[in-house]
Amino acid sequence: MLTLNETAGGKVLEIKLSGKLSKEDYQHFVPKVEELIKQHGKVRILMQMHDFHGWEAAALWEDIKFDVKHFSDIERLAMVGDSKWEAGMAAFCKPFTTAKVQYFDEAKLTEAQAWINEGLAAA
């Protein structure tokens, strides 16, 4: 399951993930991100993963295509999750983007929100 919520006037996209991501999830997610990039140049993403089980094979391919196309369009990526492998996933993502990537445990959601919004009010 995937839900999207814009904050900070569309400069931040909050994504909530659970279960396994499908190709259809990317068909919903990618146009929204591309719309925000067109409006703001760069965007920030706060990804909340709860009971997340990774990607279906077709969705993994969609993720790779997205990463290549938007290598420098994401300014910050905060990953919030409830398991240790998700922290490793944050480290794995770093070579595929110029974004600042940081992992937060689920209990530190408020800290993640503060980090993802840091500097936006003054901009």
Description:
The chain has four helices and five strands. The protein is α/β, with parallel strands linked by helices. The protein has one domain: Rossmann fold (3-Layer(aba) Sandwich), CATH 3.40.50. Helix 3 links the parallel strand 4 and strand 5 (100-105). Helix 1 runs parallel beside helix 2.
In brief, what are we looking at here?
With 123 residues, this protein is an alpha/beta fold.
Helices and strands, with pairings:
Layout: E1 2-7, E2 12-21, H1 23-40, E3 43-55, H2 57-69, E4 74-81, H3 84-93, E5 100-105, H4 109-117
Parallel strand pairs: 2-3, 3-4, 4-5
Antiparallel strand pairs: 1-2
The geometry reads as globular
> Quick one: CATH class?
Alpha Beta
Can you give the helix content as a percent range? 40-55%
Low-confidence stretches: none
CA-to-CA gap between the ends?
33 Å
- Kindly report the spatial arrangement of strands forming the biggest sheet: 1-2-3-4-5
Rounded Rg: 13 Å
Name the average pLDDT.
Answer: 85
User: In the CATH hierarchy, what is the superfamily?
Assistant: SpoIIaa-like domains
Number of helices: 4
Question: What fraction of residues sit in β-strands?
Answer: 25-35%
What string, H for helix and E for strand, traces the elements in order?
EEHEHEHEH
Identify the quaternary structure here.
Answer: single chain
Largest sheet: 5 strands, mixed
CATH architecture field: 3-Layer(aba) Sandwich
Count of individual domains: 1
CATH fold name, please? Rossmann fold
Structural class: alpha/beta
Number-wise, the strands total 5
